[in-house]
Amino acid sequence: ATRGTADGMVQMDMKNKLTEVVPISGEKRANPKLVYLLGLLGLLSLALAGWLYFSDSTASRSAERAGEEIHAILENVLAPVQSLGDVLNGDQVQRLAVEAIDDPEKLPDLITELQNGNPNFRAAMVLSNEDIAGFDPMSLENNGYAILDLVLSVQSGKQSLLQIHNSLAEPSLFDAVLLMSGEEAVGVLVAGIDPAAILGSFEPDLSHLKYVGLVQYNGRQPATYLKQFGDLNLGGGNPEYISVPGTTFRLEYPQARYISVISGQTLLLMVLVGLLFVAVAYVLHLNNRKNPKPAEEELVPDSEAVPVVREPTPPEAVAEEDA
After folding, report:
1. How many CB atoms are closer than 10 A to CB 32?
2. Helix, coil or strand: residue 106
3. CA-CA to 119 of 20 to 30 Å: which in 7, 33, 75, 84?
4. How far apart are CA 234 and CA 254, in angstroms?
């Protein structure tokens, strides 16, 4: 019995200590403030998840539209580039250029044929393999080495890269193609072209992009800005580049890649937590309605209290208690 009493005292002592740390209420009602707090937190979590989802979706659509716009601009730049290449690789041009290697008097006919295909062609030069081997870059005005590099690149089988030479008194575009006689490469055709062939049609209509520029990549030398529209700083100041095939040109535009600020799993977790908080708050609210708080007893003021008068105890009763 003594041991059982001791165990009971220990349990009571532990319960008292636990009650001091975590107050335990015997009431069936939840604190209304707690109910409101849970509901508010749940609604805030749902609202924040919705706002983040909307912001993410808007940024994604904006980046997608900007990407579509820059590719449309690229297609517009490629169109005249491909048109110039088609003229240079035309059968009649190739035939006249091969003939002009041995007969320089055919050169005016070649230029006329080029201009019939595109009026922006200014000049032409044909070089046989022997001419290329003995070519003196100093024989040309300021751009001899650039022409030699272009010719050697085409002769080696690489694709020619349309480029503008700003070192000339009158800047000009240059392109080159390999000349074939049957199955044999016999030389290279170099053509000078008015830059308006490309720059004249570069008039992009910007709706989603804040800036776009046509830039020539010059290797180790600073890039040459050929034409610009908009303000790069309005687009964030962090440019991206996309190369124009068949040229040394690049399109420069503000960063248009979509970077998600929050993952889908995090959004789902926020929604679930918000719904859980709202559900718990709703259940507690219903429980409080089923268990209304009892009305407090009205307190009677001291001025209105009825005094209780006790009758004196008879002497006989006192005597009996003493006995």
Report:
1. 12
2. helix
3. 75
4. 9
In sequence order, the 6+-apart residues with CB closer than 8 A to the CB of 157 are: 178
What long-range pairs does 55-61 form, CB within 8 A, spacing at least 24? 55/261, 56/260, 56/261, 56/262, 59/258, 59/259, 59/261, 60/258, 60/260
The model's pLDDT over 215-255, given as tens digits with 9 standing for 90+, comes to 999 888 888 999 999 887 765 567 888 999 999 999 998 87
Q: What is the pLDDT of residues 272-290, one digit of tens each?
A: 888 988 888 888 888 888 8
**Residue 240 to residues 148, 232, 234, 256: CA-CA distances in angstroms?**
31, 11, 14, 8
Q: What is d(CA 283, CA 275) in angstroms, rounded to the nearest whole number? A: 12
| CB of 232 closer than 8 Å to CB of 254 | yes
Structure confidence by residue, pLDDT tens digits, 57-75: 777 777 778 888 899 999 9
DSSP 8-state class, residue 160: P
Element (H, E) at 57: helix 32-88
How far does the chain reach from its first CA to its final CA, in angstroms?
Answer: 38
Q: 39: closest CA among 297, 283, 315? A: 283
The phi, psi pair for 118, rounded to 5°, reads -160, 120
Sequence-distant (6+) residues with CB within 8 A of 81 are 162, 198, 244, 245, 246, 247
Residue 21 tokens, joined: 């740390």
Residue (of 68, 71, 66, 78) closest to 249 by Cα position: 78
